[in-house]
Design a protein that fits this description.
By secondary structure, the protein is an alpha/beta fold. It contains three helices and eight strands; from the N terminus they run βαβαβββαβββ.
C-alpha cells in the first residue's frame, strides 16, 4: 500500500490548517506524545528557533481514512491558478434529487464562506446533471463544492 500526504504551500499555516480542518471535518494534528506542543517537538529534533512558531500546521482525518494534509510555509505568494485542487463533496451524490443537491451545496458554500472562503462562480450548464460552486480558500487557492 502506498501512503501519502498532501502538502499545501502557504503564508499562514495555522490559519490554513484551521480553515481546512473545519472545511473537511478533519482535526488539527496533535503534537507527538510526550510533547506539550509542536514547537517543543521540533526543538527536540533540532529545528532552529527562527524556524518555529507556525503553531498547528497539519490536519488529519479523525477516522483515519483520508490523507494527512500539511500546510508548509513558503515566502512567495500564490500567483497562478492551482494545478491541483480539493473537491468538497457535499451534495450526497447523483442518487439525490438535483434540488436537494443544489441546496446542500449552497449550504456548504455558505458555511465555508463564513469560515473565510469566497465564491468564484457557480458551475452549472443547462441540461447537464451537475451543479457545483468554485471557491477560494483564505489564501486564494481554488477548490470546488460539489
Amino acid at each position: 500500500m502506498v501512503r501519502f500526504q498532501i502538502t499545501v504551500d502557504c503564508a499562514d499555516p495555522e490559519r490554513m490548517a484551521r480553515f481546512w480542518a473545519e472545511a473537511l471535518h478533519y482535526s488539527l494534528e496533535p503534537a507527538p506524545e510526550g510533547f506539550d506542543d509542536w514547537n517543543a517537538y521540533w526543538r527536540s529534533v533540532g529545528v532552529p528557533e527562527d524556524e518555529l512558531g507556525c503553531g498547528f500546521d497539519s490536519i488529519i482525518d479523525p477516522e483515519g481514512h483520508g490523507p494527512r494534509i500539511w500546510f508548509q510555509i513558503v515566502p512567495e505568494p500564490k500567483t497562478i491558478k492551482n494545478r491541483l485542487h480539493f473537491d468538497v463533496n457535499a451534495s450526497g451524490g447523483r442518487s439525490v434529487p438535483m434540488s436537494d443537491r443544489r441546496q446542500r451545496i449552497d449550504d456548504e458554500a455558505a458555511r465555508l464562506t463564513a469560515l473565510g472562503a469566497s465564491v468564484i462562480r457557480i458551475l452549472e450548464t443547462e441540461g447537464l446533471d451537475h451543479y457545483a460552486i468554485a471557491m477560494r480558500d483564505p489564501e486564494g487557492n481554488e477548490f470546488d463544492v460539489a
